[in-house]
């Protein structure tokens, strides 16, 4: 009996071990099956996400309750490198176009000196600009300067100003710059349009303009260039170059600025908006550099030049030295208007 009981106990233990092993194998199989299901679900989800992004990148429209013009576009489609153009290239470029050109011209004036009137001031002034032209010049010039300064701040300030003023100070500067930039854009657009249309007739190149460039307008006070006074009409070759730069680069600034300033009117795509930002910044680099040159030439380099855009009159000796063709034409036609 005892032996039979031992055998029965042993059989029971074997059955228990086998049953436990079977249960363990079932649990392991179920766990493997669950893990496989999870992996398949994750893979399916990843495939779905990848398919969604592929569709989005290809421009496939989605569905939304938004009423905006481009609500079907899930993500931006423009190349990612366009974002770096603004930060890595345009921001440093506009800084150089302003401060770099200022330093270059300051060094040039220190070495070369200004262009003096050989015969001094005559004390006789002749009319060069009408009162409307003088008014129009400043309507364009003052907003242009403010736009350059505020645009310089908005484009590159985070790299050159923000580290020095802190977050709160930077936020105030950005807000002021943005509001000023938007407001000054309107008179600039008006000034750009009127100046381009009304002053164009005097800005076409003549044969003597090429000689003007060869002697750098007679502004150099050394070597074979000293004392040279090349022919020039109402506008000399340098002023004509500035005018056409202002006309075309300014036009690019105006068009791209309107796209950014009035998005509800223009309704640009995201790619067009980014392109407008790039064009706006690149054109501003040109305008900023030429503006610095223009200011130096009118105030420092050309003795008696600034008076033209203050009163509209210029000294007669200044006209003979810097714009002799224009002066001779007026004198021949008896159209010289003297200041009383």
From TrEMBL:
The chain crosses the membrane at residues 89-113, 134-161, 181-200, 241-262, 274-297. InterPro entries: Cyt_b561_bac/Ni-Hgenase, Di-haem_cyt_TM, FDH_cytochrome_b556_subunit, Formate_DH_gsu. This is Formate dehydrogenase subunit gamma. The lineage of its organism: Bacteria, Pseudomonadati, Pseudomonadota, Gammaproteobacteria, Alteromonadales. GO terms for cellular component: formate dehydrogenase complex; plasma membrane. It comes from the Bacteria. SUPFAM superfamilies: Transmembrane di-heme cytochromes. The gene is fdhC_1. Its main location: membrane. It is found in: Cell membrane. One of its GO terms (biological process) is formate oxidation. Pfam families: Ni_hydr_CYTB (PF01292).
